[in-house]
Amino acid sequence: MEYGDGIARRVRDLAPTLAERARAAEEARRLPDETIADLAATGLFGMLVPERFGGAERGFEEMAAACREAGAGCASTGWLSVIYTLHNWMVGLFPERAQAEVWADRPYALIPCVLAPTGTAAPADGGHRVTGRWSWGSGVMHAGYVMVMALAAAGEAIEPRLFLLPREEVAVHDVWHTSGMRGTGSNDVEVADVFVPAHRSVPLADLAEGRSPGSLVNPAALYRTPLVPVFALTGAAPVLGAAEGVLARFAERTRGRVAAYSGERQRETAGAQVRLASATADLAAARLLLEDALRGVVRAVAEGNCDLRRRARARLVAAHVAGTARRVVNDLCSASGASAQFTDSPFQRAQRDVNTITGHVVFEPDAAYALYGRIELGLDPGPVTLV
Description:
alpha+beta, Butyryl-Coa Dehydrogenase, subunit A, domain 1, Butyryl-CoA Dehydrogenase, subunit A, domain 2, Butyryl-CoA Dehydrogenase, subunit A, domain 3, 3 domains, seven-stranded mixed beta sheet
């Protein structure tokens, strides 16, 4: 893979093609194979992979910028851009043997990951036997591996562990019949008493605290970064991108739209002008907030000081950015006329997609805002809080 500079620029150049394929992705309930190939060719999927395995070993800020560009073309494509890119970074947190297995043939893999611990893992000689069924397996339709979270015995305690399995050891259940984000193919996955060797599992606590086995063999600060802040912030990037795509379409539509009954040009109305300006300011502010939060996490990790307050702020920012994107999309779609509500309209598709993806638990505003408030006021966030 030849990376060079400008992965985000390459994805931006691809965005119009992604928009043209959005209907096909929605109807198929998975991304077109051509889209996967095109995204791979930009270098996106391997940009967080260690250089010694052929990756680019770039940073989260550039990754988020690229995924935001993908989201502007198609929200489902933007979301899977995050999934596939970030989960390659997560492979770099596993023991070195697992990394070598996954990246044996090329410097990236296509891997969904489900963090809800809805499975069980029984200790076995040299590893665990994993059983369970998990929902929301975004990206499983193109997967080569799958990651799932299961509860495992650890002495007298029970701990959540992340397990990495080849796709052929996982059953997929076709349940992804939704109103939005249909192109993600987020079907259920099931594992039935499959042995997973020890080198293909990591305790969730190690991932959450940035002290994973992979951080011992990959020395860059990138691999000491706590999981939840970067998952939340990079996940918000394509949601923001989808809203930016709607804003661009709204501006283009408004320039030429004439009201059917009055004959009034929409661009000459104060309402359209105010909506355009307000959305522009809101999304620009959200983008600056997102970029600042990502820079802050990266800097704090490099300095060895990514504390709870910094991590809680990442959750706060991600929820706020996603909420801003949802509000802007709904406002612009409501101002685009009844014809924007045809199911094949990019306005309608973006509205359904953004309203669906902002239901993700990581963007739930009450939880994210309360979490930041508790930590800022000196209270314990609780033992099971994602932070």
